[in-house]
Structures are given as structure tokens and as C-alpha cells.
């Protein structure tokens, strides 16, 4: 099974352009369970009815800054240019991820959210879905364009990469998204990444208002949160967790803080 998955990913990738060449062929015979480096326990299936949009508040977790990106057509842009004052859902992935509870799950959830937004034009104009690769060595704009074509997204969902590590690292550090190349004992890169699946919800003021991990990542919950933020008056947000009605918000914030560690800007 792992050979078939790797073959499909290599076919999609096309010729390698990486400065560092991966050696995925050495993964043959490795127990697939040993490759599940996304820290998760399974998909989120809420056992309660999410509260109605606007009936609860989401506290500000942090504020992020603008960062340069490259879109799937090879055009330079920035995070804030893409947002244009909208609510945004931002997911970090790499396209050769083979952990079904990792990046493929994140893409599947965003695809369902994208479909829901396409059915609500008014909400779609106030929201943006942003998928950013943390593997710019292989996930070139052309590659991201091929992935985009697989999902046939609406205008609300954009696929992006960066021009390299100098642009990528500040972006990941700003969001608190840990990523590391998974290497063999001799230091050779396996082609895989050790990472935490996180999906970030940004309000119109570029403040993180929720962070979803696999245990809390569900389309209905994310859509309710999008509707809640879209209905907020401009430049207003609760300073802390007072009035919080969603238990997933508090839990995801704790997980984010534990995974992130101290901010590199304050070390």
C-alpha cells in the first residue's frame, strides 16, 4: 500500500527541483504505522450540536503579520493581500504527505468548507480559504496548480507556496506551526516531514481566533466559527476567554500553546 501511495505522489510531483534530494525509496518495507508523525487521535465527530453562529465569542489567541507568498500561477503575493480584510482559514500542508490523518484530512475538510461557501455567495465574499505548502523545494507553483486542479475549488480557496526557507521559516514561526524533515539515521532526508496538523482561523484584523487540530477539525464547527467572525462588527473582539461558549476553542488553544513553545520573538 505504501508503495502505491509513493508511486502516485511521485507521478504528481514530476521532476525534482529540490536543493536537497529526498530518498523515499528507502521507505519500502518500513511499517506504515511508523510514518504517522502527525500528532492526532482520529477525526473529529462532535457529540453535541454546535452552538448557533453569533451566540458565542472566540477570544484572540495572537496576531499574525504579513508574509510573502507565491500563488499557484507563479505570481508573488502576500498573506494580507489574499485576505483583503476577510475572515480566513489557513492550513499548512505538504502535498506528498502520506498520513491520512494529516494533510489529506486537512485538504478534505477544506474542500467541504469550500463547497459550503460556494453555496452561500454572501458568506463566500467575506471568507477565504488559504492552503500553504511548507515544502517549497518540491511544492512549486506548478505543483500547487496541479493539486488545485484535483479539488476544483471555488474562488474562495487558494493554493500557495513560498520562494524558499527564508520566506517559509518566519511564516511558520509567526503562526507557531512546527515542522521538521524526517531523516534516516545517516542524515538522509526521507522525503517526509514530522509536523502537527493545525488549521488556523483568522479574523478580519489578522488575529488568530481558533486553532483546529485533528481532534477538533470538523466542517460544521469551522463554518459556524466563520459565520460568527463574519458577523462581528469591525475592530471588535473579546480580549480573553470570557463568554467563550465553544469547548473546542479552549482545548485547541491549550494544545497550540503546548506544541508551539515560547515564541522565537521572545527567546
Task: List its traits.
alpha+beta, single chain, 8 helices, 8-stranded mixed beta sheet, Glutaredoxin, 32% helix, 267 residues, two-stranded antiparallel ribbon, disordered N terminus, disordered C terminus
Write a compact overview of the structure shown.
The chain is α+β, with helices and mostly antiparallel strands and 267 residues long. It is 32% helix and 19% strand. It is built from eight helices and ten strands.
Instruction: Report the portion of residues in β strands.
Output: 15-25%
Alpha-beta content class = alpha+beta
Q: Report the total helices.
A: 8
Mind telling me the C-alpha Rg? 18 Å
* Strand tally: 10
Give the strand order, joined by hyphens, for the main sheet.
1-10-9-4-5-6-2-3
Low-pLDDT sequence parts? 1-18, 37-42, 240-247, 255-267
Going by CATH, the architecture would be 3-Layer(aba) Sandwich
Total of domains: 1
Encode the helix/strand succession as letters: HEEEHEHHEHEHEEEEHH
Name the CATH homologous superfamily.
Glutaredoxin
The general outline is globular
- At the fold tier of CATH, the topology name is Glutaredoxin
Sheet with most strands: 8 strands, mixed
Specify the helix fraction band. Answer: 25-40%
Report the end-to-end length measured between terminal Cα atoms.
43 Å
At the first level of CATH, what is the class?
Alpha Beta
On the 0 to 100 scale, the average pLDDT is: 80
